[in-house]
Design a protein that fits this description.
Blueprint: H1 3-6, H2 23-33, H3 44-65, H4 70-74, H5 84-107, H6 121-129, H7 150-170, E1 179-180, E2 188-189, H8 190-212
Antiparallel strand pairs: 1-2
Helix pairs in contact: 2-3, 2-6, 3-7, 3-8, 5-7, 5-8, 6-8
């Protein structure tokens, strides 16, 4: 299931913004509003938006776990919450599936001329920003004990990110021309889905920050 279908209701995305929102994200959101709906194969603006966001979230995941002790990595604010190690494990488990899904969608015949995306580019951006609405992870991506070592999970995440970033830099695919979805009313184009892979990580970066800011988080 794509994130769009099972992770956020579209009418909640713009309800709130978070304090200290990075200026980079705001700037990207403004630029995305003006992005063309279709480009062949990909406009320079679309390529740059994807590249900047992917590089940003890749670096931020790495920075958020750097130097943390085992106690800090395994800390949970409550028994039903994830630890930082589990968040990184989730990303390492989920993103390979998302990458396979987009590759499959791009092999299908272009079909977005007959369809309309149910989300704007800005909606996809807000998904990464707004954590007011929390949803339950499913589809096997909740198996956060797949990686017991955060270094292994981070390595898997970084390796795939390198592959996806290289794809963004070099692809001639017309991502705007291909739909992503299950044939229902909520369809987005593949460029938006690619961006959502990165905004999904952004949500979890914010989750890591929430864990680190919890009053019981170990000092060392």
């Amino acid at each position: 299931m794509p994130i769009l279908m099972n992770r956020f209701p579209m009418n909640t995305l713009r309800r709130n913004t978070l304090p200290g929102l990075p200026l980079l994200v705001l700037a990207l959101t403004v630029c995305l509003l003006a992005a063309p709906l279709h480009a062949a194969p990909m406009s320079d603006a679309d390529r740059e938006h994807l590249l900047v966001h992917f590089e940003m979230t890749t670096q931020m995941v790495t920075e958020q776990v750097r130097g943390l002790s085992p106690a800090q990595l395994e800390y949970k604010a409550s028994p039903d919450r994830w630890s930082i190690r589990e968040v990184v494990s989730h990303l390492a488990v989920a993103e390979p599936d998302y990458w396979r899904e987009i590759q499959k969608a791009l092999k299908a015949a272009p079909d977005m001329k007959e369809k309309k995306s149910s989300a704007s580019d800005a909606d996809i951006m807000w998904y990464g920003i707004d954590r007011v609405v929390h949803t339950k992870t499913g589809g096997g991506h909740e198996k956060v004990d797949t990686y017991k070592d955060v270094g292994e999970a981070l390595g898997k995440f970084q390796a795939l990110r390198a592959t996806m970033i290289e794809y963004i830099k070099t692809t001639s695919d017309d991502m705007r021309a291909h739909s992503f979805g299950e044939g229902g009313p909520e369809v987005i184009d593949c460029w938006q889905w690619m961006l959502e892979i990165s905004t999904h990580a952004e949500r979890h970066i914010q989750q890591i920050r929430e864990i680190r800011n919890d009053s019981g988080f170990p000092k060392k």
